[in-house]
Amino acid sequence: MVEARLSLDTHRMPELTLELLVLLALAAFLAGFIDSIAGGGGLITVPALMLAGYPPVVALGTNKLQALFGSGSATISYAMNGHVDLKRQLPSASLALLGSILGALLATVLPSDILHIVLPPMLVAIALYFAFKPKLGDVDRAERITPFVFGLTVVPLIGFYDGVFGPGTGSFFMLAFVGLAGYGVLKATAHTKLLNFSSNVGAFLLFAAVGAVAWKIGLVMGAAQFIGARIGAALAMKKGAPLIKPLLVATCIALAVRLLWEQDHPLRLFIGL
C-alpha cells in the first residue's frame, strides 16, 4: 500500500492507558458498524489511531488487523443468513487476497500521485451513481459479464488496488457487483464484505511481516469491531437497500472529502489551497 512508503518508526508508541483503550475501542465499534453496511470504517479508525499517537505506518498496519475482525464478523453474519455462499466464492476470495498481496509488494515502486488525484472524483461519481440510479434495490438484475470473467478480472484488480492504496475498496466492490454482476444492493454488500476481508488479509500479512502492527490495541479494537459489525450487518439485512444506499453515498462523499482535506493532496496544491 502507499502506507508502505512511510518510515517504520515504531519506537515512539503512546502509553496504553485505560482511557485510550476505551476511546479506541469505541471508535472501532462505530467503524465496524458503518463498515459492515457501507464500507469506509478506516475513515474512523486510522485517524483515531494517529491522534492517539501511533506512527502513521503502525496506525495503518494496526487498522488492517482490527479491520479483519469487522469484515470477518460481517461476512459470517451475511453467510449465516444465506446472502453469500462462502464455498462458491472461495476462488474469488483467493484472487482478491492474491491481488492485494501483489499490490502491497509493488506499492513501494508505484507512483501514488495519480491515485491521489483521481480517487476523490471517482468516489463522488460512485456516490452519484447510487444516489440517482433508478430502481436500485435488493432484487438482482441482469449481469453484464459472466461470473467467471468477473472473478478472474474485476476481483483481483480491486484487490490489487486495496494492496497499493486502499481507500474506497468497499465502494469499488459494491459498484462492480451492482453495475457489472447485476447483484441487488444487499447481496452486493454481503459479497463485498467477503472480498474486502480477503484483500485485508493480504495487506495485513505484509504489515505484520515488517513489524508495523501494535498487537495489543489492535486486538482490543478488533473485538469491538467484531461486535459493531455484527450489529451493523444485522441491521443491513433487516432494512436492506433503504438503509445501505444513503449510508454508502454518505460514506463515499466523506471519504472523498477526507482525502482532499490532506494538506499535501495534489489537487489542493494544484488549485493553490
Write a short abstract of this structure.
By secondary structure, this protein is mainly alpha-helical.
Low-confidence runs: 1-8
Tally of alpha and pi helices: 11
- Euclidean distance between termini CA atoms: 26 Å
Shape: globular
Tell how many strands the DSSP assignment holds.
Answer: 0
Give the percentage of residues in beta strands. Answer: under 5%
Write down the Rg: 18 Å
SSE run? HHHHHHHHHHH
Query: Quick check: average pLDDT?
Result: 82
Which class do the helix and strand fractions yield?
mainly alpha
The profile of the biggest β sheet is:
none
Q: Could you say how many structural domains there are in total? A: 1
Oligomeric composition of the shown chains: single chain
Helix content: over 70%
What would you note in describing this structure?
It is a single chain. The chain has 273 residues and is an all-alpha fold. It has one domain. It has helices spanning 18-38, 42-51, 56-80, 86-106, 113-132, 147-164, 169-179, 185-209, 215-239, 241-260, 266-271. Helix 3 packs antiparallel against helix 8 and helix 6 (147-164) runs antiparallel to helix 7. The model is unreliable at 1-8 (pLDDT under 50).
